[in-house]
Structure prediction request, 69 residues.
Amino acid sequence: MKLTATEKGLLIPKQLLGDNQEFEILQENGKIIITSINQTSSICDLGSNPVEYDVKDGAIRHDHYLYNS
Prediction:
């Protein structure tokens, strides 16, 4: 696909962007690289994929298990 730049820049067709809303633009070695940024709210995702382990007091003694102290 060829695009023509205007005074304001370059218009990228929406169908190339998919459902993504936020992008990062990089310029490397004469190339422009556009990558999508998947936004996730870390606080909202907290605990959504817990690690299963044979520990009953992980919430209370998490430092002990993380740092082996």
In short: Strands lie at 23-28, 31-36. The chain has a mean pLDDT of 83.
